[in-house]
From TrEMBL:
Organism whose genome encodes this protein: Rheinheimera tilapiae
Record membrane topology: Multi-pass membrane protein
This protein's name: O-antigen ligase family protein
Keyword Transmembrane attributed: yes
Domain O-antigen ligase-related: 222-365
Location (main, coarse): membrane
Length: 445
C-alpha cells in the first residue's frame, strides 16, 4: 500500500469512527466505549505504520505540541491519582479512575490523529460533513421513533417516554450532540454564502434560488432543519435554550467582528429562529417544550439539590480531587436524603470536574478552552479563507453552547459527545495554524 493511500485510508477511518460513535448508546456503556477505543487504537496503529514507512511524516508536528499539552497533563494527573503512593493524591475509587484514564488516553490519541490527518481545505470540509451526517442520522432516527408512536425503541427496547433521544440513553446527551453538530453545520453553511452585496432583479433572484435548491447548500439546510426538529423533540430545556442563545450571540458577534460577513447572514439566522424553531417546531412538539419550561421550578428539580449538596465535596477535595470518575462513590457520604432518582453525576460538568480532578487542574483546562475560543475568534475576524472562518464561527457556537449546557448537565461524561467536542477543538487548532494567505479566489470572501 502506498503511503498516500494509507494516509487517505486513515482519514476515512476517522470520519467513519466519528459517525459510528453515537450509534451504540452514545458509546456510553462499557462494551460500546471499549469498541470505540478499539477503533481509535486501530487508527493509531495505522498512523504508526505511516510514520515508520514515511520518515518525514511526524508522529505529531511540533507546531501542535502546545495544543496537546493540556490533554497530556490531564492524562498524567489521572495516572497519578490511580497509581500514586501518596494517600492525599490517591483516588478514592481506583477502578473508576482507571476507566477514565483509559478513555482519556484514547481521546488524546484521537486528538493527535485529527491534527495529523484533518489538514487542508478539502479534509476539513469532509470532516465537517461527517459531523453533519452523524447529527442528521441521529436526528432522523430520533424523530422517526417519536412520530411512529413506539413506546419502546427497537433493538434495545428503551422507553421513549415522549422524548426523542436518537440512539442515546439520555435525551439531554442527544440534544447536546445535535446542538454541537448544528453549530458545525451552521459554520459550514456560512462558508458557502457569498459576501458580495449586489442588486438583483427578479430573474437573477429566481435563478439563484433555483440554483440553491439544486445545490449542496440546500441539502445542508435540510439537514439543519431535521436536526432542529430533533432538538425540539428531545424536550431538553437547556439543550434548546443554550443552542439558540449561542446562535444569537454568535450572529451578533459575527455582524461586528466577522471578516466581511456573508450578505445572507441575518436572513439565515432569522430563518433558523423563526422558520425552524417556531413554524416547524410547532408542528413537532414545540408546545410540549414550552410546557416543560413553564413547569420547571427549583423546588421540583432534584439536580439542583445534587449541585448544592456536592459543594462540601469540592471543599474536601479542592486541590487534588477525589479521583477521576469517582463522583458517584463520594457523593452518598454528603447526600442528606434520597432523591427521586439515582444521581451518579453532578449534573454540572464544572463542579464534577473540580471535585474529581481538583480546582487547579479544572481551571487549567478551562483556560485552555478559553485560549482555543480566542483562537477561533481571531480566525473568524482576520483569516482570508471562507471555510476556516465559517468553521471557526461554528466552533465558537459549539463552545458557547457547551459552556451554557454544562452548567446543568454532564454531556462531557458521554464518550460520543466528548469525542465530537474534541473534534471541534481540533478543527480550531488546525485553523489557527493555517497560513493566512487565501487559497484561491473562490475561497476568499
Amino acid at each position: 500500500m502506498q503511503p498516500g493511500t494509507l494516509n487517505r485510508l486513515i482519514f476515512i477511518l476517522l470520519c467513519c469512527i466519528l459517525i459510528w460513535a453515537p450509534i451504540p448508546l452514545g458509546s456510553n456503556r462499557p462494551w460500546s466505549w471499549s469498541l470505540l477505543e478499539l477503533l481509535i487504537g486501530t487508527a493509531f496503529l495505522l498512523h504508526l505504520v505511516q510514520c515508520w514507512r514515511t520518515p518525514q511524516f511526524e508522529l505529531l508536528q511540533r507546531r501542535y505540541w502546545l495544543a496537546v499539552a493540556p490533554l497530556l497533563l490531564l492524562t498524567l494527573w489521572l495516572a497519578l491519582q490511580r497509581f500514586s503512593p501518596w494517600p492525599f493524591f490517591a483516588s478514592v475509587d481506583p477502578y473508576q479512575t482507571q476507566v477514565m484514564l483509559l478513555k482519556t488516553v484514547f481521546f488524546v490519541l484521537w486528538f493527535v490523529l485529527l491534527l495529523s490527518y484533518a489538514q487542508g481545505h478539502k479534509r476539513l470540509r469532509l470532516l465537517a460533513l461527517a459531523i453533519v451526517i452523524a447529527g442528521a442520522l441521529q436526528a432522523f432516527y430520533g424523530v422517526v421513533l417519536q412520530l411512529s408512536g413506539q413506546e419502546l425503541s427497537p433493538v434495545i427496547g428503551m422507553d421513549e417516554n415522549n422524548k426523542a433521544r436518537g440512539s442515546f440513553v439520555y435525551q439531554n446527551h442527544f440534544a447536546n450532540y445535535l446542538a454541537l453538530a448544528l453549530s458545525v453545520a451552521m459554520g459550514l453553511l456560512l462558508s458557502q454564502l457569498s459576501s458580495q452585496r449586489r442588486h438583483r432583479d427578479w430573474r437573477q433572484l429566481s435563478r439563484e434560488v433555483l440554483s440553491s435548491i439544486l445545490s449542496a447548500k440546500f441539502m445542508l439546510r435540510l439537514a439543519m432543519v431535521l436536526m432542529v426538529v430533533g432538538l425540539v423533540m428531545s424536550r431538553s430545556r437547556m439543550g434548546n435554550a443554550a443552542f439558540f442563545t449561542a446562535l444569537i450571540v454568535m450572529a451578533l458577534a459575527a455582524l461586528w467582528f466577522y471578516k466581511r460577513p456573508p450578505a445572507l447572514l441575518k436572513p439565515l439566522v432569522i430563518s433558523i429562529l423563526l422558520l425552524d424553531m417556531v413554524l416547524i417546531g410547532s408542528m413537532f412538539g414545540l408546545e410540549k417544550l414550552q410546557q416543560r419550561y413553564q413547569d420547571t421550578s427549583f423546588a421540583s428539580e432534584a439536580r439542583d439539590n445534587v449541585v448544592v449538596d456536592s459543594i462540601p465535596l469540592l471543599q474536601q477535595h479542592f486541590w487534588t480531587g477525589s479521583g477521576g470518575g469517582s463522583f458517584y462513590t463520594v457523593f452518598p457520604a454528603v447526600q442528606p436524603a434520597p432523591y427521586s432518582g439515582f444521581y451518579d453525576h453532578a449534573h454540572n460538568d464544572y463542579l464534577q470536574f473540580a471535585i474529581e480532578l481538583g480546582l487547579p487542574l479544572t481551571a487549567a483546562l478551562l483556560l485552555w478552552l478559553l485560549y482555543l475560543g480566542w483562537t477561533a475568534f481571531q480566525v473568524m475576524r482576520r483569516h482570508e479563507d471562507k471555510l476556516l472562518r465559517g468553521l471557526c464561527f461554528g466552533s465558537l457556537m459549539a463552545l458557547c453552547h457547551m459552556a451554557l449546557h454544562s452548567t446543568v448537565d454532564f454531556s462531557l461524561q458521554a464518550p460520543a459527545n466528548a469525542l465530537l467536542f474534541l473534534t471541534i477543538l481540533a478543527i480550531v487548532v488546525v485553523a489557527g495554524h493555517s497560513p493566512n494567505s487565501g487559497r484561491t479566489t473562490a475561497s476568499r470572501a
